[in-house]
Amino acid sequence: MAVTVSAAVLFGLVSLVLIRTRYVQLGSALVLFLFGFFIASTGASKPITSACQAIAQALTHLTA
């Protein structure tokens, strides 16, 4: 059975764990969140999305 999880949910869970274990402070997490939010509205969002999709596709072919 295959389970799919969106990247937003995955990164959200990782961020939550890092904040709760105090590995990352709340201020730095907020800065990174805002950076991601603002970069999504620039022209860089399309190449970043394409790169993430290519990596995900490569990983699925690696295990097959």
Defining traits:
64 residues; 0% strand; mainly alpha
Please describe what this structure looks like.
The protein has about 60 residues and is an all-alpha fold. It has one domain. Helices cover about 75% and strands about 0% of the residues. The chain has helices spanning about 5-20, 25-40, 45-64. About 0% of the residues are buried. The mean pLDDT is about 80.
Quickly describe the structure:
It is built from 3 helices and no strands.
Task: Give the arrangement of secondary structure elements.
Layout: H1 7-20, H2 26-39, H3 45-63
Shape label:
flat
Q: Major β-sheet, in short?
A: none
Mean pLDDT: 79
What is the helix content? over 70%
Following the backbone from N to C, one meets helices and strands in this order, namely HHH
Supply Rg.
14 Å
Oligomer: single chain
User: What is the number of independent domains?
Assistant: 1
Write down how many β-strands occur, each being a DSSP E stretch of 2 or more residues.
0
Number of helices: 3
Runs with pLDDT <50, length 5+? none
Whole-Å distance between the termini?
A: 14 Å
Computed structural class: mainly alpha
| Strand fraction | under 5%
